[in-house]
What we know:
- Helix content is 0%, strand content 60%.
- It has strands spanning 48-50, 53-66, 81-95, 100-113, 121-136, 139-150, 170-182, 187-200, 210-222, 227-240, 248-262, 265-278, 290-302, 307-319, 325-340, 343-356, 365-368, 371-374, 384-397, 402-415, 422-434.
- Mean pLDDT is 80; it is low at 1-43 and 360-378.
Amino acid sequence: MNAAPVAPPLAGSNPGESFRGLQGLAGxxxxxxxxxGAAGLIPEGFGIRWxxxxxxxxxxxxxxxxxxxxxxxxxxxxxxxxxIQPMVGMTxxxxxxxxxxxxxxxxxxxxxxxxxxxxxxxNLAPNGTINYSFVIGETVFTLFDRINxxxxxxxxxxxxxxxxxxxxxxxxNQVGLSVxxxxxxxxxxxxxxxxxxxxxxxDQFGILDQDQHTVSAGxxxxxxxxxxxxxxxxxxxxxxxxxxxxxFITYGAGPMLSFQPNEFIILSGSVQYTISEFSSGGQISDxxxxxxxxxxxxxxxxxxxxxxxxxxVSSGVNSGxxxxxxxxxxxxxxxxxxxxxxMGLNFGFTYSKMTQSQSQQALVPITFPTGTFLVPVSFIANxxxxxxxxxxxxxxxxxxxxxxxxxxxxxxxxxxxxxxxxSVNTVTLGxxxxx
Length: 435
């Protein structure tokens, strides 16, 4: 399953993110998350529109069945579940001025679990940006505010026989300033400072609530119509509000290269050398630091107007859960076929290997000024696991406003600890309507 990373990345974990739109590391998603990019046409032009903006609405309902809702191993047995999840969403766009835009999406949903009360809840999914740009000489300055919410899972988490589910809904907001300057048509530099607040929408994973300062810079040069090269670097300082995890400072820098021989093929690669130094002020006993290469290579090929596929290989490091950090290697393949004007097919496979930095006792009561917390899921911080995710999806555009999506996901987690190995099968049917 491909999804945005739910673990906050250390600098260098996806060094190509700001270079030609490279994707970040794939994360492990919740059992109820549909496969991404279900095929079908995307209708446009709906909603209320005016000269400088628009507002549109959409609604959906998904029905999901999973045979292993709590990610239990064979030692503990699987427990199935059926999920009904209606959602309403709103999208707002407003051109505030020549240099300022507002774009915001928000969704409000309700997830009903047939078998597990703690998996029944309301969900809020905001996603928006505010940008204000101004020019001084040849330099463009942009003030921004970006907010997004995500629900997902962590590769460190396994059910381990617990009778409750995992709720990993989080929200983060970043404010900052970016600067870009073009020396010539082919050569430019950029820089950014951002301050991020990351919080859980419930108390289950409050131990990961954090504040983050990020400074980054890059230089890019187009060698020819086909080749673009660059160099980027960043520094990140992270502190955790509950002081369970150890805070850290991390640095990364390295080159990037992109090759586009024609309009059908794009090849991109980036590598950084990353150093991450962790404090000892948290509750966990991990004293490990990280230093080494992180990289990402991607290739996309549009075979015809209706058929495309892509490959991504990456190696990175994310902040840990019960350990200082988690190293992840990922290789993924995706293919899409629009075999009918209203219908298509998607296939994806992702292989990941994750290794945690050091062992740590789990399920221990931790006392903070705000109260006593018990880490609610089993994690073992010296775990090493292999994750295999397969997804197959199709979609059908019923009308200009309504569409259907059907997805199947098969996930396997193979851990060095037998009780933390499991498999999950999930089938999801979704109905979407825009107005």
